Amino acid sequence: MFDISFGQLLLVLIIGLVVLGPERLPIAIKTVAGWIKVLRRMSATVQLELNKELKLQELQDSLKKAEQSGLNTLTPEIQESIDELKRVTESLQKEIDSVSQTDTTIHSDKDKL
Q: Helix H segments across 1-113?
């Protein structure tokens, strides 16, 4: 990810040991590791939300194309599939909206602290 070799990592640890001392170095390492975990979790969440949003957009585009093509004489099976896609699209949109509201609430609660 960062292309850090073992020698470079060892150099950073030695400098950290000299600057921070042996008492504070483990605490600093734990703190940095915690930050990295939080950043990875946040990036995974964002990536998941973007994937859901892209799938939702694709479904909506497919539904619009089907409606614009003027297929009034659809078989019952195809009409059921279209109705199911509409329901799934609506449920995904509601889920995305609720996650967005939850994230906004969490961030505003953290700002208050």
A: 6-68, 76-112
- pLDDT tens profile 27-47: 988 998 999 999 999 999 999
Give the C-alpha separation, 12 to 35, whole Å: 18
Give the angle subtended at the CA of 37 by the CAs of 32 and 38, to the nearest 5°. Answer: 95
pTM over 0.70: no
Task: Provide the residue ranges of all domains of the chain, joining segments of one domain with +.
Answer: 20-112
**Contact status, residue 66 vs residue 106, Cβ threshold 8 Å:** no
CA pair distance 110, 113, nearest whole angstrom: 5
